[in-house]
Amino acid sequence: MNLVSTPEVDPTLDLVEEINRLRREKNAVILAHYYQAAEIQDIADFVGDSLDLSRKAAETDADVIVFCGVKFMAEVAKILSPNKTVVLPDLKAGCSLEDSCPPDEFRKFIDANPDHMVLSYINCSAAIKSMTDIIVTSSNAEHIVSSLPEDQKIIFAPDRHLGGYLSRKLGRDMLLWQGTCIVHELFSEKELIKLKAKHPDAPVAAHPECPDQIVQHADHVGSTSSILDFSIKSDADTIIVATEPGIIHQMEKAAPHKTFIGAPGADGNCNCNTCPYMALNTMQKLYTCLRDLGPEIDLDEETRVLAEKPLRRMLELSPTKGPSKDVSAIGE
Ligand code: 13P
Ligand code: SF4
What pTM did the predictor assign? Predict the structure, then answer.
């Protein structure tokens, strides 16, 4: 595979114009996650959370899916739409949760607990998905776990914080794989308490990838789409946002009169909470990726077929529609 990190691009090119021309020429759809840079979100055909983006990738009639997110998300697009060309601006855009769950070790863990159903958070490799019974995202996990019989034993991987949150909220005992997101782990409870004292009327919206000591201070816990929805609908004019700060772009567009403050890290500001993997995608790489139709996602067919089953199961079991909307309709 061809890894693209620093593409040579003519600095005089109008990248927006070129990307628009290429996407028409190649019948491509640009899907972007809320953690992408603002200019990438603005040029995308659709911006959403992991579940919304999976649905879009499964439904699209475009020939090419340009996935502006991280690699596991682009892999989901390829698993669900195997006949399409799926490209990612930078193949090095990984995820610490994916890295925390090596397939060989996970296989041993499953084999050691044979009477358990395996639920995996979508933030994992195709190999982990191929060993899973049902995939979940942060917007459907609660619904899916609740739909399982109460005596069903569950392995949950790889995010111990999302798993712990579900286990506490739903009163379910689950065997948790001990993976974490390096971005959400950086929020500081001490600094959050100080920030809340400065803004006593500001609710806190947190992603369930945050450790429990952050989630405990939250007025709303949910996926990126649900945090966005909460922030837009809340009566408060200031909201503290405990997730990757890329999402604040959509909040500011939808509710320009409100103030959104990123939850702080240990140094008292939130710059450390930018996802370094998401940040690898740039407008230059988006342009070269469309121009060259690469780097392309290429999966071993046996793994793809096995990984498709738990993803389809997730789509069947998910509530019919998440709160997010097409880019043009965000905030309506
Ligand atoms: P969402 O499904 O909420 O968008 O989360 C994806 C993710 O990677 C959060 O870190
Ligand atoms: Fe992975 Fe965390 Fe980045 Fe999300 S924010 S892609 S979980 S490293």
Answer: 0.94
